[in-house]
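=== RUN LOG ===
request id: a7f3
mode: sequence -> structure
chains: 1
length: 172
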Amino acid sequence: MMAHGKSQRLRMKRRRNGQTDYRRRMKLLRGGAPRAVVRVSNTQVTCQLAEFGTDGDRILASITGKTLVDSYSWPLDASRKSVPACYLAGYAMAKAAISAGHKEAVLDIGLSASSSGSRVFSALKGMVEAGLEIPHGETVLPDDERSAGAHISESISPTVEVSKKAIEGAFE
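=== RESULT ===
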């Protein structure tokens, strides 16, 4: 016996699972500039510079919270997804992108909420301070005390400076 009624068309799998907003993705891709992708997971932050390709996105530069610990003297016991860690990951990714010859990008925050001063905008602040040209409004960036970690503890601020110097030393 045949089924009756209107045939249903399935949405794409990543849309059904709530992983990709294809309308927003297409708007980002139309500009032609590489995307500065920021994702914050349960354990760490990931910052990538991605370029669209018909066979899949190409990753031009990538920094994770683990990279901060392994290469840029971020403490092993410190959070890899805090506001200062996101700032440093964005800073390191931008330095890597600039040294690879990329000067501009557009911010891709995926499905995360766009709250002013959040971790994704902390990563954006790091990218902008490192010299990557990304269109943004100044009101969304966290203040300097938050990106330095003063709201967490007094011991984080010197650690952020040490890690920032290690990042600068690696890309000069």
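=== NOTES ===
Helices lie at 13-16, 22-30, 65-71, 83-99, 119-130, 144-148, 156-170.
The first strand starts at residue 35 and ends at 40.
=== END ===
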